[in-house]
Design a protein that fits this description.
It comes from Psychromicrobium silvestre. It is a single chain. The protein has about 180 residues and is mostly beta strands. It has a single domain, classed as Phosphatidylethanolamine-binding Protein (Alpha-Beta Complex). Helices cover about 10% and strands about 25% of the residues. The chain is built from two helices and eight strands; from the N terminus they run αβββββββαβ. Strands 6-4-3-7-8 form a five-stranded antiparallel β-sheet, with no helix packed on it. A three-stranded antiparallel β-sheet has the order 1-2-5, with no helix packed on it. β3 and β4 form a beta hairpin. The longest helix is centred in the N-terminal third of the chain and has 8 residues. The chain is globular, with a radius of gyration of 16 Å.
Length: about 180
């Protein structure tokens, strides 16, 4: 009840969408990657089974994407809550993926896989953290953003800012799928 009231009080508090990682100049590139999911369509509701702990099963959705451009050495997946009531969006998950992948089966971000390397997200967490909007806060948009890089990441960045510096000038293409959940 108190959380729902807090969500309602903060309903109009949302970051400027331009603060999303999608708009970071370090990640700028042509939008030529098509990202899809069998769990939800672009702009539609993400099923609760893919929601974070305490709300759903925290099971990563199946994702698929079009072939990355020639010269791609690494794929980078960023899952971000664009509407959290904070000064900037929160990144739930960051994963460096093998460039040979054309998708991820349901649950693949919940287990160890040699083709997936998790990097620190907004609060330093590693792994899949599904949508979990503040109750009462309204609709939240979650961007599943994919970037094709012309080099492997190599070292693990300490945080999101360090990651952006590592990829600056190395993004060949990008694409995204946006799903929603009601808080």
């Amino acid at each position: 009840m108190a959380v729902s009231l807090l969500g309602k009080l903060l309903r109009k508090v949302r970051p400027d969408e331009n603060r999303s990682s999608w708009y970071a100049p370090e990640l700028a590139a042509e939008e030529t990657l098509q990202v899809q999911s069998t769990a939800f369509q672009d702009g539609q509701a993400i099923p609760l089974t893919h929601s974070g702990k305490g709300r759903g099963d925290n099971l990563s959705p199946a994702l698929s994407w079009s072939q990355a451009p020639a010269g791609t050495k690494q794929l980078l997946l960023i899952i971000e809550d664009i509407d959290v009531p904070l000064p900037r969006p929160i990144i739930h998950t960051i994963a460096a993926l093998s460039p040979s992948l054309l998708g991820l089966p349901e649950g693949s971000l919940n287990q160890e896989d040699e083709n997936i390397r998790f990097l620190p997200a907004s609060f330093g967490s590693h792994g899949y953290a599904g949508p979990r909007p503040l109750p009462g806060h309204g609709v939240h948009r979650y961007g599943f953003q994919l970037f094709a890089l012309d080099r492997p990441l190599g070292e693990e960045p300490k945080n999101v800012a360090a990651l952006l510096e590592l990829v600056r000038g190395h993004v060949l293409a990008r694409g995204r799928l946006t799903g929603i959940q009601e808080g």
